[in-house]
Inverse folding.
């Protein structure tokens, strides 16, 4: 399967614990995005990487959230000191932006990681 | 400000009938427009996109969408609905002048196809 994969698919944790999610993008894709989605809402942008560089973070992203993409391949999203309000589906997407790309590229999404904070 | 509106929270259609899921947008420049579908407890699947050229775009699973610049709309259509089309549909737009290529998402429309 050459699509975007995410692990784990489900995570239940207690408030105050740290959690880490992993995303493996489509292999040749240079962009990787993280989104959060709550029930009945569209995806909410969190952050994105161009290769290994994190180019933008949403202002909604608190300092408890951190993301990395070492070597420009897989990415991890860590949430420290989880709160009940962090319960959501966390989506990863990847895309291939050509050197002179003008935003035509399509983002392909993984299946998501559903987080429940008790 | 850039925005996407999906005016209907839910659309109900009988199987075999044509369906339309509405989307309107607002961007400063010219838009790139996308439709995605989400099945329960799944990630989003790309359906189709409008970049330039023919205003009628054909996509996966028999869906198509028509770009209307004067009405700033990009409605999703299918001539004959299937029960398996029941899902959540999201419209998204990107301003071609946005160097960060950020997608602006609608809130989604739940499509229910009744047998």
């Amino acid at each position: 399967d050459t699509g975007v994969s995410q692990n784990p698919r489900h995570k239940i944790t207690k408030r105050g614990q740290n959690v880490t999610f992993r995303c493996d993008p489509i292999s040749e894709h240079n962009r990787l995005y993280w989104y959060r989605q709550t029930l009945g809402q569209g995806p909410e942008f969190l952050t994105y990487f161009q290769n290994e560089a994190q180019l933008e973070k949403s202002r909604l992203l608190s300092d408890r959230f951190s993301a990395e993409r070492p070597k420009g391949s897989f990415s991890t999203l860590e949430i420290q000191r989880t709160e009940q309000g962090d319960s959501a589906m966390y989506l990863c997407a990847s895309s291939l932006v050509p050197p002179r790309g003008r935003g035509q590229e399509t983002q392909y999404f993984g299946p998501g990681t559903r987080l429940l904070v008790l | 400000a850039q925005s996407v509106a999906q005016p209907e929270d839910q659309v109900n259609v009988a199987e075999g009938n044509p369906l339309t899921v509405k989307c309107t947008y607002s961007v400063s420049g010219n838009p790139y427009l996308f439709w995605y579908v989400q099945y329960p407890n799944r990630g989003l699947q790309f359906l189709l996109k409008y970049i330039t050229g023919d205003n009628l775009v054909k996509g996966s699973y028999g869906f198509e969408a028509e770009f209307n610049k004067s009405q700033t709309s990009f409605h999703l259509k299918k001539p004959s609905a299937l029960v398996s089309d029941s899902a959540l549909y999201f419209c998204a737009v990107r301003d071609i002048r946005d160097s960060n290529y950020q997608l602006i998402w609608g809130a989604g429309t739940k499509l229910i196809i009744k047998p």
